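Solute carrier family 25 member 25a, pasting as requested.
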Amino acid sequence: LTQWACLRSFLNKEHDGQLDFEEFVHYLQDHEKDLKLVFKSLDRKIAGQVSADDIVNSLRDLGVHISLQQAERVLQSMDKNGTMTVDWNEWKKSPTLQPAENIPEIILYWKHSTIFDVGENMMVPDEFTSEEHMTGMWWRHLAAGGGAGAVSRTFTAPLDRLKVLMQVHGSHGNSMCIMSGLAQMVKEGGMRSLWRGNGVNVVKIAPESALKFMAYEQIKRLMGSNQETLGISERFVAGSLAGVIAQSTIYPMEVLKTRLALRKTGQYKGISDCAKQILKGEGMTAFYKGYVPNMLGIIPYAGIDLAVYETLKNTWLQRYGTENGHPGVFVLLACGTVSSTCGQLASYPLALVRTRMQAQAMVEGASQVSMTGLFKQIMKTEGPTGLYRGLTPNFLKVIPAVSISYVVYEHIKMTLGVQSR
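Structure tokens follow.
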């Protein structure tokens, strides 16, 4: 029945709804090829057979945890000779196998950092299947993600600028709430001032995403991994290192974004003028102020975001994965929102210190303080809550940012010819 269901699906793609002999042979060859690919991905010892341990280990690498007993039940449905292993002949003849894309489809459906953009590109990069690498679909996904990020950041830019202002100027002596902060920005520079700093925030998406992806792929090779996907701990290490490389390269743009967001009307003519004034007045080192807390912030953000997302994904797959391969829009949005929020919450104090260090030269009477000195100063004058100034507008933008980036991503993806399965 499964084979006929696959064949019927294949027929539905044809214009005439008819199947000639050549098309039938082509279908059988493709189906057997897919089965062979999955069998080889499970048979890691190249023993010509798959055991329960192979199934457990392969799924664990994808973040899906099943017990040995569950894996043995899967094998029993295919094992014909009672050896509790399945060779190629038993595998391809098994009537219980669905079309052979179960493992790659987890990668296809559960993309995370490519789809969701909350303004901070510190997530661990997504995995791409061998098929996506070979067909060039990976760059279409990245392009769609970049376009979605640009639209999402532009829509939520007023909240992002308000967050920066509250991080730098908010204190016990200068109480700034959301409404008063927005009103203050409009009064000082008009409606257009709400988007100050957004230009460079959008421009840096492309180089950062490209550098991060290339670094991630190279680190995977250096780690000696020839698998389609890494394990969770390996992904965290590779993703964090890739993030450090990408952030180190584009960090001057982060400083420019902060300075442009904090500028007064007429202070800078644009991005290039801002860069020239900083270089002339403060020197090259000014472009790397706050670099250390920014790099340290990658670890808790990437780690907690990945752990929470994988936990939510694994929970859903265990409960509903056998009924439906696609998680659906609501599940993806909910998982992305929760994991991003947790990651930001964990790294927020470091992000706040980074922003204040970037802005020290613009704040009247502010002395040049180190990272540890700034932490002590905030704790002494403002208390622990001072480390979370601007957290409210930051959280307010997560849901619209995630939702907008997902919708735009799907539209751009279809325009580029990437079909959703």
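Note for the archive: The chain has 19 helices and two strands.
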